[in-house]
Amino acid sequence: MNDFPGISVVVPAYQAENTIEDCILSLLDLQYPKDKLEIIVVDNNSNDSTGARIKKYDVNYIFEKNRNAYAARNKGIEIVKYEYIAFTDADCIVSKDWLCNMVKHFESKNVGIIGGKILPYSIENDVEKFIDFRKILDQEKMLEKSKFSFPFCVTANCVVKYSLLKELGGFDTYFKIAGDADLCWRAFFKGMKTIYAEDSIVFHKHRNNIRNLYNQSFQYGFGRASLFKKHHKKFGKQVRFDYKEYVFLYESIRDLILSFIKLRKPILKKQFLFDIISMSGLTAGKIYGSLKRRTLVF
Fold first, then answer.
1. CA 234 to chain CA centroid, nearest Å
2. Cα(290)–Cα(229) distance, rounded to whole angstroms?
3. SS3 for 7?
C-alpha cells in the first residue's frame, strides 16, 4: 500500500472503568494519519463509570443495550466510515504502530481478516505468568487448522474488511464468546484468508487471579460447545471428544501429587495447580455448554 487507507477502530466496553481509559489513550496515541482514523467505543450497558470515562475523550461514544460484546461490535460497525475495521478490547493497550503494520498485510490475495500479535501488558504475578507460559492468547496458534478448529483470530487484535463483514452479516450474537472464531470460520468457508501479522502488537491485561483464570477457561469451554453446535456438520461429527485434554488433566493432577512427595520447586507446584484449575474450568464449560446448547462436547 502506497498510501494509508481509512480505518475505523471499534472497542466494546462493559464494566471497564478500570481499563478503558488506558485503552483509549493508546488509541489516541496511534501513529496513523488522524484524518483517516476514527475511534468508536461502544458502552455495552455498563452500570459502573465506563460511559462517563469514555465521554471524557475525543472518540465516538455509542450505547448498546444488549449486554453482548458481539452485539456491541455490530453496533459500532453500523456507523463506521471506512472499509477497514479494527477491533480491540477495553482491557488492551495498542502499540503505536499497530495499524500501520496491520493494514499493509491486506496486499496479499484473498485476505479478509488479519490477526495481530497479543502480548501480556504485565507479568507481575503467578497467574499472569502462567497465562503467558501456556500461550492462552497466542494468535499464531489459533490460526492453525486442527481436528476441531478452522483458522481464526480473536477480536482483541484484528482487522476485518467492512465488505466482508456485511457479506457475512456481521458477528453472530448467538455467541457470548467465540463469536470471533465463528466469523473467521465463515470467512474461511467462503475462501477468504485469515492471516497473522506478527509486527502488529496489542498488549492484553491478563487475568490475574485464580478465580478469573477458572472463569476464563469455563467461558472457553462454553464457546467450544457453541461453535460445535453451529458448525458440527463441517467436521462430519455429532460428538466432539478430545481425549488429550483429559490425559493432560490427569497428568497435571498426578504431577501435583508427586511434586509434594518428591519436594519439587514451588514454581512447578503452582504450574501443575494452575493447569488443573484451567483444565477443570474448560471441562466444566464444555459440559455446561453441551447442556445449554444441546450438543455433545467433551
1. 22
2. 8
3. strand
pTM over 0.85: yes
Strand partners, 115: 158, 196
Phi, psi at residue 155, to the nearest 5°?
Answer: -75, 5
Question: What does the alpha-carbon distance between residue 282 and residue 285 come to, in Å, rounded to a whole number?
Answer: 5
Do the beta carbons of residue 252 and residue 276 sit within 8 Å?
Answer: yes
- pLDDT tens figures, 264-276: 677 788 999 999 9
The H-assigned helical ranges of 116-209 are 126-133, 139-142, 162-168, 179-189
pLDDT 10s digits, 47-61: 999 999 999 999 999
List the domain boundaries for the chain. 7-208, 211-297
Reported as a single tens digit per residue, the pLDDT across 126-173 is 999 999 999 999 999 999 999 999 999 999 999 999 999 999 999 999
In three-state secondary structure terms, 287 is helix
Helical (H) or strand (E) element with 244: helix 243-261
- pLDDT for residue 108: 78
Q: Which residue from 50, 68, 70, 69 is spatially nearest to 59, judged by alpha carbons?
A: 50
> What span, in angstroms and rounded, lies between the C-alpha atoms of 12 and 69?
6
Could you tell me whether strands 92-94 and 193-204 are parallel, antiparallel, or unpaired per DSSP bridges?
A: antiparallel
State whether CATH 3.90.550.10 applies to domain 7-208: yes
**268: Cβ contacts below 8 Å, ≥ 6 apart:** 255, 259
DSSP string, 17-33: TTTHHHHHHHHHT-SS-
pLDDT digits (tens, 9 = 90+) for 84-107: 999 999 999 999 999 999 999 988
